[in-house]
Amino acid sequence: MHDIAGQPIGESIVPRGRARRGVPLDPSNPKTWREVEDLQPRLKARLRLGSWVAWHVRKQGDRADWGDERQGARRAGIIEAVPATAAWGMLDWICVPTTRGETGVLWIELKSEKGKLTESQALNALHLARAGQEVVVLRPRHFFEARAGEADMVALRLVEHIRPTGWEQVLVLHDMDLPTVLRL
User: Fold this and answer.
1) Which of 9, 66, 89, 165 could hold 124 in an S-S bridge, CB 3.0 to 4.6 Å?
2) Which of 159, 25, 47, 150 is nearest to 92 (CA)?
3) How far lies 74's CA from each of 88, 117, 138, in Å?
4) pLDDT tens, 108-167?
């Protein structure tokens, strides 16, 4: 049997893990990238090149195959927080520099181009920024070269350890209000 594209059923022209993507992946078009499959590996590579120690906070409440009647039930997650509701807005990455001259913790939330921060994420980001932490919301477009021959914004910050032009557009600032953070 064949599908409408003439492919044998069971064989897909879409790479594994991309079946739910509305638009096929185009590496030159950040609008086709997804957070997990496309941004996480790029971020990890830049963190390694820049000598950061980083922790990835895995999604909480994800579906789990428990192998019994609880199949498909939600896992509690890996974060214990006080108050407990703070765990639901935990940002994706906690990064500590190992380079001399670089100080402070960098908190990163990855979003797809159309992805939106939850209110909990925005509130936690604001708390961190008000405590003097560097908090950024990164999207696929921030992983692209600014001009031919130049490194992208994320590479400049994580690998070269400089705050590039435009970095202020991805930062959560201490004087922002919640609606402004939600629009990042």
Assistant:
1) 89
2) 47
3) 14, 21, 27
4) 999 988 889 999 999 999 999 999 999 999 998 898 876 666 788 999 999 999 999 889
